[in-house]
Amino acid sequence: MIRLENVEKVYRTSSIETLALNNINLNVKKGEFVSIMGPSGCGKSTLLNIMGLLDAPSKGYIEIDGSRVEQYTDKNLAHLRNQKLGFIFQSFHLINDLSVIDNVEIPLLYRNSSAKERKELAQEALEKVGLSNRMKHFPKQLSGGQKQRVAIARAIVGKPEIILADEPTGNLDSVMGNEILNILQKLNEGGATIVMVTHDDAMAKKTHRLIRLFDGTQVV
């Protein structure tokens, strides 16, 4: 489903060169729930961004569903992200001026879906995360756990095959964190392939496989 071959990522300034990822090789199979762990600054988010086509490797290549993407145009990459990938961020990235259902509909705007279809799909996604009674609320009226559930609904509204989650429980207490993990597990059981960055050993142990990074290198 996602394959990285000899991936390296280097960030350069006029005076400094930083090796963020070094010779990463990994293969995430369809239907897997994989967690990525490592100390702060080890390259976890960089790796997730490359897997999500938000950043390009300096060397090596990435395949999504069997297709190598290094020759894709920005337009083709954006289309692939919209069709196959769903993103969940630690800081939610909700728009405060929009209602919950309008926030969830956002990815569908780029598909030229009709207003009726957008509303139906958004309602369906909110029901999956247990927030059908909060559709007309605004983010400022929600708890942290509720905001993250809205973010998950937004990530799954387009029914992506792959969900990439960057510290989805990092801003939540243990009770809310477990609720979010339970939702992700149900999505995985429903067929979604999930890659989750986490600092929480207990969370990681509940996924199928753990990938550890240290100083940008995959620890075997």
Care to describe what's here?
Keywords: ATP-binding, Hydrolase, Nucleotide-binding, Translocase, Transport. This is ABC transporter ATP-binding protein YknY. Residues 2-219 form the ABC transporter domain. Its EC number is 3.6.3.-. This protein has 220 residues and is of the alpha/beta class. The protein has a single domain (30-54, 73-219), classed as 3-Layer(aba) Sandwich (Rossmann fold), CATH 3.40.50.300. It is built from seven helices and ten strands. The protein has helices at 44-51, 74-84, 100-109, 115-128, 144-156, 174-189, 201-205; strands spanning 2-12, 17-28, 33-37, 59-64, 67-68, 85-89, 162-166, 193-197, 209-214, 217-219. Strands 6-7-8-3-9-10 form a six-stranded mixed β-sheet, with helices on both faces. The chain has a four-stranded antiparallel β-sheet with strand order 2-1-4-5, covered by helices on one side. Strand 7, helix 6 and strand 8 form a beta-alpha-beta unit. Helix 3 runs parallel beside helix 5 (144-156) and helix 4 (115-128) packs across helix 5 (144-156). The two termini are 21 Å apart. The relative contact order is 0.20.
Write the layout of secondary structure elements.
Elements: E1 2-12, E2 17-28, E3 33-37, H1 44-51, E4 59-64, E5 67-68, H2 74-84, E6 85-89, H3 100-109, H4 115-128, H5 144-156, E7 162-166, H6 174-189, E8 193-197, H7 201-205, E9 209-214, E10 217-219
Parallel strand pairs: 3-8, 3-9, 6-7, 7-8
Antiparallel strand pairs: 1-2, 1-4, 4-5, 9-10
Helix pairs in contact: 3-4, 3-5, 4-5, 5-6
